[in-house]
């Protein structure tokens, strides 16, 4: 089940106070409407009843997809130290309930469901990316390793540009791509190297489990660089 609570929200535009629903967890199958809002990037939007202004209010919550066996915590903190504190707290809670979950939320926090992928992301784009990856039946660890390989190959082409992020994405026609987001807001994309994914899946997948953090893990570009180093012994 999904869980939510209400808090008073004050519109920054007109000062009107109203009740806002905050979701502690969203189950994609039991609350498909909320899943669609997440994918349409409307989940965090709050509309003022008085002036009609729409403001995006980010907060931490847990996304759960039973069909694809995926659980993702999206942490709203932007400060690196606060992000680390939030990650540590999530995994501390996971350890506390691991041996004796008493309700669904405890079971989700434990991250012990068979075959589940348990992740932590630090932004909205990262959450949507994990959902799309799972929808395609891909392993997000291999996706992050592919990003690292692509970056190494595009080194000279990216000179003079500051890259904010790389995301795996898929359009309405099912075309898959790696999307580059630059600090000036511009984006670029290349076709997703499906052949490389298949090659890495065969060569690397068996070696990834031992170097994947337990509990709710942060699997991103930095993790991929570390995984390369660990597998190569450097």
Fraction of helical residues: 25-40%
What does the radius of gyration come to? 19 Å
Mean pLDDT: 86
Major sheet attributes: 5 strands, mixed
Portion in beta strands:
25-35%
Q: How many extended strands?
A: 10
3D shape: globular
Q: N-to-C SSE series? A: EEHEEEEHHEHHEEEHH
Give the domain tally. 2
Kindly report how far apart the N and C termini lie: 45 Å
**Which sequence of strands runs across the widest sheet?**
1-2-5-6-7
Total number of helices: 7
Output the structural class: alpha+beta
Which ranges are low-confidence, i.e. pLDDT below 50, for 5 or more consecutive residues?
97-101
What's this, in brief?
This protein has 234 residues and is an alpha+beta fold.
Question: How would you characterize the overall build of this protein?
Answer:
- By secondary structure, the protein is α+β, with helices and mostly antiparallel strands.
- It folds into 2 domains: 137 residues, no CATH class; 97 residues, no CATH class.
- Helices cover 37% and strands 26% of the residues.
- It contains 7 helices and 10 strands.
- The strands form 3 sheets. A 5-stranded mixed beta sheet has the order 1-2-5-6-7, with helices on one face. A 3-stranded antiparallel beta sheet has the order 8-9-10.
- A hairpin with a 6-residue loop joins strand 1 and strand 2.
- The longest helix is centred in the middle third of the chain and has 18 residues.
- About 2% of the residues have low confidence.
